[in-house]
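Practice problem 4.
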């Protein structure tokens, strides 16, 4: 291989690398359409029911404190042919529970789903219990599933005369495949000719990019952005398949997502999360801390001999106040999130002080971001 040919080959590889790197960076910042939108009609439905868990080892509801448990137990026994009218029912092996579940989309009659169980009364633990037949109702009041089975919990409670140990939450549990679906949701996805895509993070730019990606792939105007949260998809004329085939074709398309500049603050835990587009103009920041220390050192005073005095305790309080102030520091205008973080970290402040500083910077108009406090 000649030296000139080798130089041309190296130059070609360098040029190809320079062309591919921006494409790879853009690809790394992109996401599939199926990961950023929800398809209309493809959704879960919440179900709820009230039932009884039996077989508890003395950890159930106390019937005197939970009248609904006693009434439910008597009603169930009467339906089974056991007459308990006028009888004083005493048992600690039964607990009233609320049963919740999410009906999967397009679940067929006869299939199973998981359910969650939570104690309603003063039961100590659901360990070892079995849920009796419990209808699960939808928002329309119709029964969509029937739940029954042994309850599995991820906690325990052990107690003695002078100590108690509790791990996890023993009054909640789960029944894997514990509900049998009895009613289906009447929605035929394949027969639709138009469908909406709902963005999980609404944004005008992202909605338009989704529509452009779909239209470029199909080759005809198929997707239309209606608002920041919705893109309407219409089955094109002459398409070889139904709407399900169209969704299957486009859900793998890569779209570069966009978002508004936002700072999320959790004041309870002191957590701060910043988006990559957060910017700040040049500002000067000063911060001071006031620390107050109170120490109690009481003194015991004994009476003189042969006196009629009594032993007394005199209070002795040491009170100190320390005010530490920082000089006025300048946070330069940032062009990237890393520069902003470096500038704020240079102040040497705690996260909770940083929360107050960010809110003050926002009040001055120097912070180009939205602050959301949880």
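Answer key:
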């Amino acid at each position: 291989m000649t030296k000139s040919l080798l130089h041309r080959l190296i130059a070609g590889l360098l040029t190809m690398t320079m062309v591919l790197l921006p494409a790879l960076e853009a690809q790394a910042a992109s996401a599939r359409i199926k990961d950023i939108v929800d398809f209309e009609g493809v959704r879960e439905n919440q179900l709820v029911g009230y039932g009884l868990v039996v077989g508890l080892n003395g950890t159930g509801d106390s019937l005197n404190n939970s009248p609904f448990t006693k009434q439910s137990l008597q009603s169930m026994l009467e339906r089974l042919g056991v007459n308990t009218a006028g009888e004083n029912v005493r048992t600690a092996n039964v607990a009233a529970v609320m049963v919740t579940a999410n009906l999967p989309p397009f679940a067929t009659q006869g299939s199973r789903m998981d359910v969650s169980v939570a104690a309603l009364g003063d039961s100590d633990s659901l360990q070892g219990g079995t849920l009796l037949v419990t209808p699960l109702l939808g928002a329309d009041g119709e029964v969509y599933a029937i739940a029954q089975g042994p309850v599995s919990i991820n906690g325990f409670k052990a107690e003695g005369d002078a100590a108690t140990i509790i791990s996890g939450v023993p009054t909640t549990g789960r029944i894997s495949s514990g509900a049998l679906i009895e009613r289906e949701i009447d929605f035929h996805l394949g027969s639709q000719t138009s469908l909406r895509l709902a963005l999980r993070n609404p944004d005008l730019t992202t909605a338009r990019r989704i529509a452009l990606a779909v239209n470029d792939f199909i080759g005809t105007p198929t997707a239309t952005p209606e608002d920041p949260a919705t893109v309407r998809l219409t089955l094109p004329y002459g398409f070889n398949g139904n709407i399900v085939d169209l969704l299957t074709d486009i859900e793998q398309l890569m779209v570069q997502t966009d978002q508004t500049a936002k700072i999320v603050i959790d004041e309870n835990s002191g957590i701060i999360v910043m988006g990559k587009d957060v910017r700040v103009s040049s500002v000067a920041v000063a911060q001071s801390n006031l620390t107050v220390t109170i120490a109690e050192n009481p003194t015991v005073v004994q009476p003189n001999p042969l006196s009629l005095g009594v032993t007394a305790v005199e209070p002795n309080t040491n009170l100190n106040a320390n005010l530490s102030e920082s000089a006025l520091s300048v946070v330069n205008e940032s062009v990237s999130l890393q520069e902003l973080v470096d500038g704020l970290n240079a102040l040497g402040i705690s996260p909770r002080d940083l929360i107050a500083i960010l809110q003050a910077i926002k009040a001055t108009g120097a912070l180009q971001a939205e602050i959301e406090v949880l």
